[in-house]
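Both lines are retained for reference:
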Amino acid sequence: MKQLIATIFTGISLFASSDINAQLKAGAEGIVILNETVFHTEGLTLVPSNNLELVNLNISKQQHTIIWPKFNSIQRRFQFSRPLTFQGELAMNYENIELNGNEAKNLALAYSKAISNNYKDFTLVKESVVNTSERYIGQLFTDNIVFADLTSVSIEIPTVAPYTELVANNMITPNGDGVNDTWIVKNIHLHPNNELKIYDREGRLVFEMIGYDNSWGGLFNGNPLPEDSYYYILVIDSGKIKKTGFISIVRE
């Protein structure tokens, strides 16, 4: 990590302009960034672990933000005209005016494989290195990542044990009155990287969804399931925690 901080600082200290235009245009002839060479363009620094060839690629700096459930991205995004596969050190700087209400000390990189305005498409790099005095966020990626959109958000530091904010209802009454018609997991929106599976008594899978959003109303293939108890398995954050339990369907 010391290598990251020292190398990235060299690149960040060379940033200058703040124009919101295409910052880099690499045509068919291409640009080659030699391994361990500091490459920077308008607030973005790349130090590839291997020779990196940029061909028919534009990089632009934008002021668009990403709306997240608990916070917004800062008002700076770097967008690539096509996805870039990258391994090495990566960092972006920011101005205080771009924080958009976020806490600088808790900033973390966020990237998506395609240009997107949906926070669910972004991967958070929670272990990002932050230097608030030099105003940059960086990280050393030892494995390849793929990104076309790069920004940063401020991660809130949990003050309680993780995942205790997830509270699942144990009964639904899907009668169309707008009350308790769907199965609700309180605060599930804070963990969009989830996977839900629901089974009946015979072990038949009656519902599954990646990124559950509190929308299941007791249906199987579009048909209402009978009153009974159903078993659910909710996997959070790629297996970091698994919640299980029963859901009763009551039809009045």
The two ends are 60 Å apart (CA to CA). DSSP finds one helix and 20 strands in the chain. Helices lie at 2-12.
